[in-house]
UniProtKB/TrEMBL annotation:
<protein>
    <submittedName>
        <fullName>Polyprotein</fullName>
    </submittedName>
</protein>
<dbReference type="InterPro" id="IPR036397">
    <property type="entry name" value="RNaseH_sf"/>
</dbReference>
<feature type="domain" description="Integrase catalytic">
    <location>
        <begin position="94"/>
        <end position="257"/>
    </location>
</feature>
<dbReference type="Pfam" id="PF13976">
    <property type="entry name" value="gag_pre-integrs"/>
</dbReference>
<dbReference type="InterPro" id="IPR057670">
    <property type="entry name" value="SH3_retrovirus"/>
</dbReference>
<dbReference type="Pfam" id="PF07727">
    <property type="entry name" value="RVT_2"/>
</dbReference>
<dbReference type="InterPro" id="IPR012337">
    <property type="entry name" value="RNaseH-like_sf"/>
</dbReference>
<dbReference type="InterPro" id="IPR001584">
    <property type="entry name" value="Integrase_cat-core"/>
</dbReference>
<feature type="compositionally biased region" description="Low complexity">
    <location>
        <begin position="420"/>
        <end position="437"/>
    </location>
</feature>
<feature type="region of interest" description="Disordered">
    <location>
        <begin position="356"/>
        <end position="391"/>
    </location>
</feature>
<dbReference type="InterPro" id="IPR025724">
    <property type="entry name" value="GAG-pre-integrase_dom"/>
</dbReference>
<feature type="compositionally biased region" description="Polar residues">
    <location>
        <begin position="404"/>
        <end position="415"/>
    </location>
</feature>
<feature type="region of interest" description="Disordered">
    <location>
        <begin position="404"/>
        <end position="450"/>
    </location>
</feature>
<dbReference type="GO" id="GO:0003676">
    <property type="term" value="F:nucleic acid binding"/>
</dbReference>
<dbReference type="GO" id="GO:0015074">
    <property type="term" value="P:DNA integration"/>
</dbReference>
<dbReference type="InterPro" id="IPR043502">
    <property type="entry name" value="DNA/RNA_pol_sf"/>
</dbReference>
<dbReference type="InterPro" id="IPR013103">
    <property type="entry name" value="RVT_2"/>
</dbReference>
């Protein structure tokens, strides 16, 4: 027994067994004690993994869980993790009169750029009547202008003022509150389109009906704006399906019933009366068209003629509602695969992957489009609407009429003209370019049919597909191994040339930035030669007088190149090509220039330091000048002398052995009469610069060179192919001439073009193509006159040039060896050919032997009083070019056996040039033009008459017929690669 000694309390007892006492006792288990402890209801909520609070309460009661406090408090973690949109109650608000509340919303961008250049539309919905107005936009920033015009017109039409405007929180609606403070602007909460449910549901309604119409008639997707406008026109005449009322929005707003008998099936065949446009009485009185909608400003129908891209508005129309031309003509390739309509549906309106069939080869657009303030869409009012008294005559218009209100406000002096619209792709065609092209320059075959693709066509398509785009940022390139290698190679070259030293950043001196430029270098056949990464300074941050002074640096003129190539071919001189690696880094920098360290390659030990440049790195304003001075100084030391008439031409005469060098930045052409002298010059240059000898000339400045002993062909096929791909014209239907016959383009023709930058870029690229293509000189010169304000008509002219190049992509300039190097030129003018200022166009082409070496087409600076004066001015320009060429030939030690001849097809101008006597009718002509007389008197030039039929320069002054153009084109030496040159690039 065990007792407490002090208290005598009995504690326990035990029995002895084998000399040990066996104690028996019961002990409390710790886990059981914990389970018996009562905790709060919130603790049970946490233990159970944060279920819903009502479920936690039910478990506490049903399972009789020990709980010291059954009250559940708010769980902050649940609030953060389970926050969702709250349910919306049914709206009970209603308006009592029109225009009390206007719902608005912007839809877009559309996956296909419309033929009018639209990507978006904005809806204005009257809450009282549910009448809808739709206006098409090029960009969202036009919404405020559209609403301003809409407000004026609709308030004048209804006789009431808009009181409330309800929109989402898009930035395009923000200017409205500032412009119209009298209107209450209600905004939805961010990311809560349900608060603008009327507009969102209307968007879906319009989209669903439009897609049904497009699919039913196989209507090309580029006509989506026409179909959407017609859909809204019909919706406004349909009673709402949510109630039993048969009163349509149109009737509620205008208090008159719509005329359903005038409605026809959209997309069906129609025959509008076109007799007023006939040129003679034996022409048909109508032409087959496609019905695309209802007119607003006229009481008539909109009829589209695919063959001419015209839209006729006529009251006198015969409909064949069971015939659908787009479906019958099979503009689409395969009707079993509809277009990817899912791209049209915003994410908030999609219900699942099976709502629409999809295709994997659909591509979205990326280009902008033309602007419109208040497009006169058919949805805004009916032909039998508030205005009934309208003329019955047919009016020929274009879809571009929709955008003219805003464009007239931008250019109020421009008269209204009718442009030709771009061709239309099918709504169901397989090729991506014909359904969702990134740009609306998409064409179709003229006969509205598609040929079955055979294997050779597929190969041709692959050859003309756009090349893979180069990286535009360091982050993009740094993920690709071959661009990483290219950047390391560039930095190695910079280090070898001791381009800079790292110094602490100056506190009182400008520091320029730098960036990486990436370019895939290609061979003449388009295959990849190498990947080039170039570190360039951001020269636009330089300060004149601080880190640069003079910047001018000459480059070789194209005419000089052609002169030297013609001479080399005739004399059988070898032509070699040289390339200087990192040429600018060989130029010494005289100014103090600081530059930031290259992106991605900052020195980790000196991250705050900057580069003090010692060499003329690419991108600096003075770099080309520094490199040219370095190279020219070396050539002068080697015995060359620079031409006085083209500073980039260097000539060496070593005891009658001629060596000629042409310099275009870091690309060099070398030729001459002695192979040993050429090799010696190349060796000397290689000892001074990191020079690559590329062998025989084959690719120079983007020009492919094919040669044989007696022929040499220059072609820009690769450059033209890339240009066609960039403009999505690589599958266009070719044309026979780059400009239609007797075309007279005015600056006021057509609507303003939606993307002037695109126009400038394409015309600039075409100007470069004229280096080897004199056949497009005049149309390109004509289009370049409208760069300040291009229109849709001007853009159509550019597209025609591209279509012509598409059919003659392998054509180029041909040179032939000639024993006679006589110099002769053809001069012509188009008197008062410009319809805007009545100025004339001067043109000339100069030949050395049989080879054309120079040409020009240029508008004269002043108005000529007669055709003789215009021809005389053109003759003077041609004479100036011939005199300059004579000087170049003299420097090249080439002596002409007889004076150059100028051929002119105007007898009066020939007499003026040959007769130094005073003429009263030419006393106003500038004195400098009369220098041609002095040259004729001195015997340096001969002016002779030639018939207009034999005048080659006629092709550089106007558009010609196909037969006449082909004849002149052959004389301009433009042709495919001859078989003697291998028929392809060597």
């Amino acid at each position: 027994m065990v007792m407490d000694y002090h208290t005598a309390q009995f504690l326990l007892q035990a029995k002895a067994s084998s000399g040990l006492y066996l104690l028996t006792a019961s002990l409390n288990c710790a886990p059981q004690a914990c389970l018996g402890e009562k905790v709060t209801a919130n603790t049970w909520h946490f233990r159970l993994g944060h279920p819903a609070l009502p479920l936690t309460k039910r478990l506490l009661i049903a399972c009789n869980l020990p709980c010291s406090n059954s009250v559940l408090s708010l769980c902050e973690d649940c609030s953060m993790a389970k926050c969702n949109k709250l349910p919306f109650s049914t709206s009970c608000s209603s308006t009592k009169a029109p225009l009390e509340l206007i719902h608005a919303d912007v839809w877009g961008p559309a996956p296909v750029l419309s033929s009018n250049g639209f990507r978006y539309f904005v809806l204005f919905i009257d809450d009282f009547s549910r009448f809808t107005w739709i206006f098409f936009l090029a960009s969202k920033d036009e919404v405020a202008k559209v609403f301003s015009n809409f407000k004026i017109q609709v308030e004048n039409l209804i006789g009431r003022n808009i009181k409330i405007l309800r929109t989402d929180g898009g930035t395009e609606f923000k200017p409205i509150s500032r412009l119209f403070p009298q209107i209450v602007h209600q905004l939805t909460c961010p990311h809560t389109p349900e608060q603008n449910g009327v507009s969102e549901r209307k968007n879906r309604h319009i989209l669903e009906l439009s897609l049904a119409i497009i699919n039913h008639g196989c209507i090309p997707l580029v006509l989506w704006d026409e179909i959407f406008a017609s859909t809204v026109f019909l919706i406004n005449r349909l009673p709402p399906s949510a109630n039993a009322s048969i009163v349509s929005p149109f009737e509620l707003l205008f208090s008159k019933k719509p005329d359903y008998l005038q409605l026809k099936v959209l997309g069906c065949q129609c025959f509008p009366l076109t007799r007023p446009y006939n040129q003679h009485k034996l022409q048909p009185h109508s032409t087959p068209c496609v019905f695309i909608g209802y007119a607003l400003s006229q009481k008539g129908y909109r009829c589209y003629q695919p063959q001419t891209d015209r839209v006729f508005v006529s009251r006198h129309v015969i409909f064949h509602e069971q015939v659908f031309p787009f479906r019958q003509n099979k503009l689409h390739v395969d009707t079993s695969h509809p277009a990817d309509y899912t791209l049209w549906v915003p994410a908030s309106m999609r219900f699942g992957p099976n709502l629409f069939p999809s295709r994997s080869n659909t591509v979205g657009p990326s280009s902008s489009s033309s602007s419109a303030s208040l497009p006169q869409s058919p949805a805004n009012g009916p032909p039998n609407g508030p205005v009934d008294e309208l003329p019955d005559e047919s009016l020929e218009i274009t879809i571009g009429q929709l955008a003219r209100n805003l464009q007239r406000s931008k250019n109020s002096n421009a008269p209204d003209r009718t442009p030709a619209r771009s061709s239309l792709p099918s709504s169901s065609s397989n090729p991506p370019d014909s359904t969702t092209s990134a740009h609306h320059m998409t064409t179709r075959m003229r006969d509205q049919t598609r040929l079955r693709r055979q294997f050779p066509d597929f190969v041709a398509f692959l050859a003309t597909t756009p090349p893979t785009s180069d990286p535009t940022t360091f982050n993009q390139a740094n993920k690709i191994p071959h661009w990483q290698d290219a950047m390391r190679s560039e930095l190695k070259a910079l280090d070898q040339n001791k381009t800079w030293v790292l110094v602490p950043a100056p506190t009182n001196h400008n520091v320029v930035g730098c960036k990486w430029i990436f370019k895939t270098k290609r061979k003449a056949d388009g295959s990849i030669e190498r990947y080039k990464a170039r570190l360039v300074a951001q020269g636009f941050t330089q300060e004149e007088g601080v880190d640069y002074f003079d910047t001018f640096s000459p480059v070789i003129r194209p005419t000089t190149i052609r002169i030297v190539l013609s001479l080399a071919l005739s004399h059988h001189w070898p032509i070699r090509q040289l390339d200087v690696n990192n040429a600018f880094l060989n130029g010494d920098l005289l100014e103090t220039v600081y530059m930031r360290q290259p992106p991605g390659f900052v020195n980790p030990q000196l991250p705050s330091h900057v580069c003090l440049l010692k060499k003329a790195i690419y991108g600096l304003k003075q770099s080309p000048r520094a490199w040219f001075q370095t190279l020219s100084a070396s050539l002068l030391q080697m015995g060359f002398h620079s031409s006085k008439f083209d500073p980039s031409l260097f000539i060496l005469n070593n005891k009658g052995k001629i060596v000629v060098i042409l310099i275009y930045v870091d690309d060099i052409i070398i030729t001459g009469s002695d192979m040993g002298c050429i090799a010696s010059v190349v060796h000397n240059l290689q000892s001074r610069f990191p020079l690559k000898d590329l062998g025989a000339l084959h690719f120079f400045l983007g020009i492919a060179v094919s040669s044989s002993p007696n022929e040499l062909h220059l072609s820009q096929k690769q450059y033209i192919s890339e240009l066609l791909c960039r403009t999505h014209m690589h599958l266009a239907q070719p044309v026979a001439t780059p400009m239609a016959v007797n075309t007279s383009i005015s600056q006021f023709d057509g609507d303003p073009f939606h993307d002037p930058r695109l126009y400038i870029a394409v015309v600039g690229a075409l100007q470069y193509v004229t280096i080897t293509r004199p056949d497009i000189t005049f149309p390109v010169n004509k289009c370049s006159q409208f760069m300040h304000n291009p229109t849709t008509t001007h853009w159509s002219a550019v597209k025609r040039i591209l279509r012509y190049l598409r059919g003659t992509i392998d054509h180029g300039l041909l040179f032939k060896a000639s024993n006679s190097l006589n110099l002769h030129a053809y001069s012509d003018s188009d008197w008062a050919g410009c319809p805007d200022d009545r100025r004339s166009t001067s043109a000339f082409c100069v030949y050395l032997g049989n080879n054309i070496i120079s040409w020009s087409s240029k508008k004269q600076p002043t108005v000529a009083k007669s055709s003789t004066e215009a021809e005389y001015r053109s003759l003077a320009l041609a004479g100036a070019e011939v005199i300059w060429i004579q000087h170049i030939l003299q420097e090249l030690y080439q002596h002409l056996s007889q004076p150059p001849v100028l051929w002119c097809d105007n007898i009066g101008a020939s007499y003026l040039a040959s007769n130094p006597m005073y003429h009263a009718r030419t006393k106003h002509v500038e004195i400098d033009f009369h220098f041609i007389r002095e040259k004729v008197v001195a015997g340096q030039l001969l002016v002779k008459f030639i018939s207009s039929r034999d005048q080659i320069a006629d092709g550089l002054t106007k558009g010609l017929t196909s037969a006449r153009f082909l004849s002149i084109k052959n004389k301009l030496m433009v042709c495919p690669v001859p078989s003697a040159c291998g028929g392809a690039i060597r």
